[in-house]
Amino acid sequence: MIRRNWLRTQRVLLWICLVVLCTLFSGCSLELVDISTQESKDSSSSSITSQNRLRVIFLDVGQGASQLLISPSGSTMLIDAGNNDREQQMVDYLRQYGVDHLDVILGTHPDADHIGGLDVVIDHYEVGAIYMPKIQANTKTFESLLESIRDKGLKVKTAQAGLQLEWDDQVQVEMIAPVEYSEDSNNMSAVLKVTYGETSFLLTGDAERESEKAMLASGKDLSADVLLVGHHGSKSSTSLTFLQQVAPKFAVIQVGENSYGHPKQEILNRLSKNGTQVYRNDLQGTIEFASDGQHYEITTER
Ligand SMILES: [Zn+2]
Prior knowledge:
By secondary structure, the protein is an alpha/beta fold. Helix content is 29%, strand content 26%. The chain has helices spanning 2-27, 87-96, 112-115, 118-124, 140-151, 209-217, 240-246, 265-273, 281-284, and strands at residues 29-34, 54-58, 67-70, 76-79, 101-106, 126-132, 156-158, 164-168, 171-177, 191-196, 199-203, 226-228, 250-253, 277-280, 287-291, 295-300.
């Protein structure tokens, strides 16, 4: 009798272990990608070590955008911070990633789904520099951001094409847009190209066709392995010529529940035809690309 009970207990314990393990492993998925550069022939480097990595984290902020970058030497950058209703979540995210200060903040453009959470972030954290394009918005959200910037004694630096950001010695951060002034807020979006070794990211805010055209005409090298799809996958962005120039292997769409029909099927088809693998915050939660300069380790929340 005692033995039978003991066996049953063992079986129950085994089941509990299995369930716990399954839950742990299905909770997040991880993918290792070799971008097959000439230098990556040394297969001993197939796994990315925890140090010397550039982490680009596409935070799940619902219908909005926010990217947290952590450099190989630990410098931090926050690009946008989702909507006003995500303020607490933003602060929680930063705490979760162990961020205690932000070397750079970039508000890509004044729309609420991008700058909404920035005021609270600025209130809570030490900030090195803040960049925003030269365009105003007549909204409470924008006013509130300006107030936080003033209270902190920060001075906004103008986001414009041609700027090289001094952020980490090993990572090149160049502003590709806005190339020229536009009355349209989306087309004033600051666009960053981030390059680390052989790996690269193009982070586009809500830049639309007008800005894409200007970027193409500027003659800058737009090619990148990872593209943040412009304007949440709207039809007004990711024109074919632009996509062909960037030629990304991976694309991230920062999108949540919305009434705009984002992302548009037409854009998903275009990305698929281009051979680009798509990641989406609404389907996969927070998405992280960690680069050692040659490989990407891609982690999704679900
Ligand atoms: Zn937006």
